[in-house]
Design goal:
Layout lengths: L7 E6 L7 H16 L3 E6 L11 H9 L7 H8 L1 H16 L4 E4 L6 E3 L8 E4 L2 H8 L3 E5 L2 E3 L5 E3 L4 H12 L4 E6 L20 E3 H9 L7 H10 L2 E6 L7 E4 L16 E13 L6 H10 L5 E5 L4 E6 L3 H10 L4 E13 L9 H10 L7 E4 L3 E7 L3 H11 L3
Parallel strand pairs: 1-2, 1-9, 2-6, 3-6, 9-11, 10-12
Antiparallel strand pairs: 4-5, 7-8, 11-12, 13-15, 13-16, 14-15, 16-18, 17-18
């Protein structure tokens, strides 16, 4: 009689889950426990540790930046991919030592084919036959995250948070039942716990809401990874390598809590500091040229408001110097508000509910928090405030909406 397998599961382990021997022990225990329950497992790993650790991505980048900060992007991707490859070999070796057959695979060997947009490549195709064959043989493939290969054979990387993306890409290709993202927290939280003391774990959340949380500042999961599992209709879980907490389930479904509509009106609050507001105080003939130059200089804009006589938007504060150079080039009348922060309240159920914005304004006015700009959509309300007001704003909104 053949072996009956319950599910195909992709488990991804981040850098903090691999940083020490003790951490790697915990991570392998999660894999073994799931495998022993009768599941087929594909593992995706990040580079070991974070900046400053020997094999972390930023450490590898610094090795070449010390020689020349203008290294070409193709070569930079090659060295950036090394950390994940090292992790895959170490993790597979640990599993083999424990008596479980495992094989380390690079992104290339896993069949991840990308375009040649080095540093932020997009996946074109995944040839998953090798992974599927290993799974059918009861072998655990341990795949280096964050990397792929062009059709010409050049190594590429998938952008920061790319190991999350790899896990989702692989899950879609092998038709996994669900993806588990292991990190060092118990799940997604209603707000940044470093800012909001009353933040709590979200037990269940919809794809659209978690995408908005990730896109607006939550660093637990990459938005691109969420978008992939959403289109593939694969359930995702955010879990802690170092605890047995159930974590956060990401699905099309939502928690059904009929006790109080207001209790589930808002799912969570995301925040981004180090933003700068740009206000151009006149209509001008150079709009197209200005925005083309911003794109060429990799300056992303957000919270765009267009009026008859002015335009307002925000940028990452690190781009302020370059932004000034572009605006001065066209001799424009503009205002730059530095040291801003963006706070976004998120909840699919607030669509069509009257008075939400009014509640936001009143609660912040109570604490003299000045609102510099607002933008809203069906599931979000984003406000721009001074960075110094970030903590009080997040805590007050968290309290006001009963999150």
């Amino acid at each position: 009689m053949g072996v009956f397998y319950m599910s195909i599961i992709v488990q991804k382990f981040g850098g903090t889950s691999l940083k020490t021997g003790e951490a790697r022990q915990k991570a392998t225990e999660k894999v073994i426990e799931t495998f022993n329950a009768g599941n087929r497992i594909a593992v995706v790993v990040s580079a070991i540790g974070r900046k400053g650790d020997f094999y972390a991505t930023d450490t590898l980048i610094n090795l070449v930046n010390e020689i020349d900060v203008n290294i070409n992007k193709r070569d930079l991707d090659l060295i950036m991919s090394c950390g994940e490859t090292i992790s895959a070999v170490i993790f597979a070796t640990l599993l083999n030592k424990k008596g479980y057959k495992a094989v380390a695979l690079t992104g290339t060997q896993a069949g991840i084919i990308t375009d040649n947009n080095y540093g932020n490549a997009e996946t074109i195709k995944v040839y998953s036959q090798r992974i599927t064959k290993l799974l059918d043989q009861g072998v655990i493939p341990v795949i280096a995250g964050f990397q792929g290969v062009t059709q010409d054979g050049d190594i590429t990387t998938l952008g920061r948070g790319g190991s999350d993306t790899t896990a989702s890409i692989i899950a879609e290709a092998i038709e996994a039942s669900f993806v588990e993202i292991y990190t060092d927290v118990d799940g997604l939280m209603t707000a940044d716990p470093k800012i909001c003391e009353t933040a709590r774990i979200i037990e269940e959340i919809g794809y659209n809401e978690v995408f908005q949380l990730a896109d607006n500042g939550s660093k637990v999961i990459h938005p691109k990874a969420v978008d992939i599992v959403r289109r593939a209709n694969i359930e995702m879980k955010i879990k802690n390598t170092f605890s047995n907490h159930e974590g956060t389930k990401i699905t099309y479904k939502h928690i059904k809590d009929a006790d109080n509509m207001e209790d589930r009106l808002i799912t969570g609050i995301a925040s981004l500091s180090d933003r700068a507001q740009v206000i151009i105080n006149e209509d001008n003939l150079y709009n197209e040229e200005i925005f083309e130059e911003m794109a060429e200089n990799m300056i992303s804009i957000d919270m765009i408001n267009v009026y008859v006589d002015k335009k307002a938007f925000i940028i990452n504060k690190e781009n302020v110097k370059k932004m000034k150079e572009i605006l001065d080039k066209y001799d424009l009348d503009y205002l730059l508000n530095e040291d801003c922060a963006k706070v976004t309240i998120i909840g699919n159920k607030m669509s069509g509910v009257p008075g939400v914005m009014n509640k936001v304004i009143k609660s912040l006015k109570r604490y003299n928090v000045e609102i510099l700009q607002t933008v809203d959509s069906l599931a979000t309300i984003a406000i721009l405030i001074k960075k110094e007001d970030l903590k009080i704003a997040v805590n007050e909104l968290h309290r006001e909406f009963g999150i």
